[in-house]
Amino acid sequence: MTAVTAPERTFGRGAGDVLANAARTGLATWVIVAVLVAGLTLAEPGGFWAAANIANVLTATVVLGLVALGQHLVVLTGGIDLSVGSTATLSALLTAMLIDGYPIRTIPTILAMLVLGAVIGTLHGLIVSRTTIPAFVVTLSTFYLIQGIAFLISTTPTGQVTRALAAVGMRRAGPFPLALAVLAVAVVIVAVLLHRTRFGRHVHAVGGARDAARSAGVPVRRTLVLAFLISGTLAAAAGVMLAARATIGSPSAGQGLELSAITVVVVGGASLLGGRASLVGTLGGVALLGLVESSFTLLQLPATASDLIRGVVILAAAALFVPRTSDD
């Protein structure tokens, strides 16, 4: 009897390990993306693979991808940043207002927005690292604060970016938008920071066991500050890209980005307790949401069903592999 049942337990455990490993490494998310691509190809074979549609999908990933990369770092430390959407909104609004059509103001304004995002992120990191207030509470308060500042500045779309900046946001080479290069650079930078630097090791250590990391000499406060600083900077960069795409600034440009960013990180296999997240999985989550968004237009689905469909896809994606990561 033992000889009969043992192979079954070994097989089950082995299959479970494979699936759990796929979830942890982010490969499971890309499997879901592949299934969705196959479904859209069958539904609209000509329309889905048209250069214009592929460009729309890739364009949709740029802003979300920038914000998700920062969220990825913060979640790895065991925190969460709910202010990224408001930071992107304020950055988009100020970018268009400060440039206001003058080319000479473009570079200084972009640099100023990145500094603004870094300052916001640094303040978050200092508060979280020096107090007992959870990151969720800190960034929830600044979510409303920053959004309120944006509405105090303007309640209607205003300002104007230059043609050169608008070209970065809207032009493409075949199916590839120029803005994708911005995301690619950000991905490379974050990947190098996480996997080739001491900071990356510290991020994983702080998220895995903060007290143990502190006892081992890891600079916990500095690590938290740097993680939030990078998150704020990337959120501000996302705001610049929002302004480039819209050519004007809007006080509601980045609404919902914070929830989308958290979604893609979690769907990508991250643990909200910290210490575990897959950059490959996060990027897969970004691709997944980009495909879902583009499918509304491609399949001519009613806009009123967008939230319903998005929720069903995300829930189905999470149900497929999140439980398999709970045995760690």
Radius of gyration over C-alpha positions, nearest whole angstrom = 21 Å
Rounded average pLDDT: 87
Percent range for β-strand residues = under 5%
Number of domains: 1
Strand order of the biggest β-sheet: 1-2
Number of alpha- plus pi-helical segments = 15
Alpha-beta classification: mainly alpha
Work out the helicity level.
Answer: over 70%
Distance separating the two termini? 30 Å
**Poorly predicted ranges:** 1-12, 323-328
Characterize the main sheet: 2 strands, antiparallel
Shape, please?
globular
How many individual β-strands?
Answer: 2
Order of helices and strands: HHHHHHHHEEHHHHHHH
Question: How would you describe this protein?
Answer:
With 328 residues, this protein is mostly helical. The chain has helices at 2-25, 27-43, 45-48, 51-76, 84-99, 106-130, 135-153, 163-170, 180-196, 198-208, 210-215, 220-246, 257-267, 279-298, 306-321, and strands at 172-173, 176-177. It has one domain. Helices cover 75% and strands 1% of the residues. The protein has a two-stranded antiparallel sheet with strand order 1-2. A hairpin with a 2-residue loop joins β1 and β2. The longest helix is centred in the last third of the chain and has 27 residues, at 220-246. The radius of gyration is 21 Å and the shape is globular. Mean pLDDT is 87; it is low at 1-12 and 323-328.
